[in-house]
Amino acid sequence: MILDAHAHLWKKQQGLVDGRPVTALKDGKSDFGGEIRQMMPPYFSDGKNTAKIFLANMDYACVSGAVITQEEIDGNQDAYLLQVKKAHPTRFKICSLYEENKPYTLEGFDGVKLCAGRLPTQDLTQHFSVFEDACRQGKFVSIDLAEGDRQTGSLAEIVQQLPALRVAIGHFGMVTKPGFEEQVKLARYPNVYIESGGITWLFNAEFYPYKSAVRAILKAADLCGMEKLMWGSDYPRTMTEITYKMSYDFVLKSKQLSDTEKTWFLYRNAKEFYQFPDMPPMTRPKNMLED
User: Fold this and answer.
1) How far is Cα 2 from Cα 180, in angstroms, rounded to an integer?
2) Reported pTM
3) C-alpha angle with apex 45: 40 to 47, nearest 5 degrees?
4) Per-residue pLDDT tens over the stretch 131-187
5) CA proximity to 4, closest of 79, 92, 136, 86
6) Using DSSP, how many helices (H) and how many strands (E) does the chain show?
7) Strand, helix or coil at 91?
């Protein structure tokens, strides 16, 4: 049983990076603030990153469910994600997007996403109302913090004021950057968790089987406990280098993690945090390369 705590979908990519437009082109490419980037695998030929394609990847990789977070570089996908949730209510948990000085909603969503490192006002206490709204409505907060400890103090203040608030810190605390330990330490608070969306991006220079990423997972477990860590793929951007299955396969094949730790990291922790329903185990047909 596997759950993905960090993935992205969009019908039309139309976002911003540092105030410059990000728009989808063709064959998986995007205009990223004036620079052409391979944003998705090349078979995403029409620039759309849809639930249909993702579900095919999930089914083949035997991933039961996924959390669809958002990113300002993709543009607000609230309307499309509500359609996705209506069509596939048990497979997906969805986040609305919070952007500074813009209206946001929690209605119909399971949580709200803050790209905190991109906020003009970096002090998170100045955005207290969105955290308070999420807590009051029983929703979770998905948050990507600025590198290091620049925002850990203000987030710690918030979770102490709102002890029932569920917070998932993304990108594994920006594990390859100095000070990532301070982000991980926030998971010592009862309802704060760390998810690994983007860990294969951060260790891409090393590449599969990401031995340093496994060591980072173990280091984080020493800081906050394996029961506070969750796997995330950061689909589809990380799929420009690897397959979807490879984004967790390095964990399954690691001899440094016990079977119990793998179960916590890949499934149990996310099921409890995001409140996924019970789902039957998945099976896939043998592929053409298997005996």
Assistant:
1) 26
2) 0.96
3) 65
4) 999 999 999 999 999 999 999 999 999 999 999 999 999 999 999 999 999 999 999
5) 92
6) 10, 12
7) coil
